[in-house]
Specification:
This protein is of the alpha+beta class and 326 residues long. It has a single domain, classed as HIT-like (HIT family, subunit A). 23% of the residues lie in helices and 23% in strands. It has six helices and 14 strands. The longest helix has 22 residues. The protein is globular and about 55 Å long. The protein starts with a strand and ends in a 6-residue tail after the last helix.
């Protein structure tokens, strides 16, 4: 079983998952790491010999699935136990990595990308995401749900088929705890609401719709980093109305379309941040989009201080004026 091990220097958990080393793509030479290997069966395509029982499945009128959520075959988190911390020695603190790890397959089409989805499919995607968040929130040992999309080998994707991952964790990650503390420290109300107001006419604004705003944040830590902010103030993603969720999803799609038009089909990480399941303090859910254009090197790893070689103002100007295909 996977283990959680506490880094006493940072106070953050590390997940040790030996079973994930069994994936055929891990540790292979880069030349062999081909996401579209024609000889490799895609487990997410219709008709695959991999028979996964879906946790959620949307079908069309003919009974063909259009999107589905299935268990991850190499889960980083698995089990129903609540977090039980054990001391194995003076500096060795661990717990079982219980929880759940799911794969969200957005489309039966192997080459479909998120930036290609029509509004109706985006609405279904966001509704399905909300449904899984609700299911996790009602699971006793899950304290936080992390939704991610890794696109491209450089971003950690082992398969090209459009998909994301949903991880139900038995603890609240350090990144979210730091954001919670930041919301509590901020004296101007809500950080995200204030940012939406402050960036409404700024040179860092990329695009917006009725429900969401996309900016290259003032504090961007990497080139073309994007922050997608719902305009409605809700702590949890699940608090948002269906219309607002669809609007945020459309903003994510359009942000990706601007990236593709400007930079091509680049690798990226899409990360949803929402308040923990039973959070009662100040928070405003939001989405981070990190294009993988540079490498995190020794200085960044050693200090935690990122070096960004493209100013957010320059990045936003490039993205704003991109020739996006209709």
């Amino acid at each position: 079983m996977s283990q959680l091990r506490l880094n006493l220097l940072t106070g953050r958990w590390v997940t040790v998952v030996p079973s994930r080393a069994n994936r055929t793509s891990d540790f292979a030479p880069r030349a062999q790491q081909v996401e579209n290997d024609p000889d490799r069966e895609c487990p997410f395509c219709p008709g695959s010999s991999y028979a996964d029982t879906p946790l959620l499945e949307n079908k069309d009128a003919q009974g063909n699935w259009q999107m589905r959520v299935v268990p991850n075959r190499y889960p980083a988190f698995e089990g129903d136990e609540s977090l039980a911390v054990r001391n194995l020695g003076p500096v060795h603190v661990m717990a079982e990595a219980s929880g759940t790890h799911e794969v969200f397959v957005f489309s039966p089409e192997h080459t479909q990308r998120l930036d290609m989805f029509p509004d109706a499919v985006i609405a279904e995607l966001m509704a399905a995401l909300k449904s899984r968040f609700v299911a996790h929130a009602n699971t006793p040992n899950i304290r936080y749900t992390q939704a991610i999309v890794n696109h491209g080998r450089e971003a950690g994707a082992s398969l090209a088929h459009p998909h994301g991952q949903l991880l139900g964790l038995p603890f609240v990650p350090g990144e979210i705890l730091e954001e919670e503390r930041a919301f509590e420290r901020f004296k101007g109300g809500c950080i995200v609401c204030t940012t939406v107001e402050a960036e409404s006419q700024s040179e860092r604004l990329v695009l917006e719709n009725e429900y969401a705003m996309v900016v290259c944040p003032f504090w961007s830590s990497s080139p073309y980093e994007l922050l997608i902010m719902p305009k409605e103030h809700n702590q949890h993603l699940t608090d948002s109305s269906d219309e607002a969720l669809t609007g945020v999803g459309i903003a994510i799609r359009d942000a990706l379309a601007h990236l593709v038009a400007s930079l091509g089909d680049i690798a990226f990480n899409l990360v949803f941040h929402t308040a923990p399941s039973h959070h009662a303090g100040m928070y405003h859910w939001h989405v981070h989009l990190f294009p993988k254009l540079t490498t995190t090197a020794g200085f960044e790893r050693g200090t935690g201080v990122m070096i960004n070689i493209i100013s957010p103002e320059q990045a936003a100007d490039t993205l704003r004026h991109a020739a996006v295909q209709a």
